[in-house]
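Render this sequence as a predicted structure.
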Amino acid sequence: MTKSKSENLPRFGSLDELVKFFDTHDLGEYWTEMPEAHFEVDIKRKTHLFAINTELANKLTDIAKSRKISSEVLISTWLKEKIQEQI
């Protein structure tokens, strides 16, 4: 019977040591010895992208900078206001 790869996998004192080890070793050789990772992903927010022309984007960016907010915040705020006017 062949030796288990886990016997060849050293113990690491830090994450940096582990990273350095796998910089020079193939993770695939130790794949079956790695612990299974369990985690949940809870994505609550979606981002939607809309195309606008360059001139309009530049103007929006300038206005946002002058208000010291991001372009995304400015656009979202203005769109919310415009939608409320339509309701």
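Summary. Residues 64 and 74 are 6 Å apart (CA to CA). The mean pLDDT is 87.
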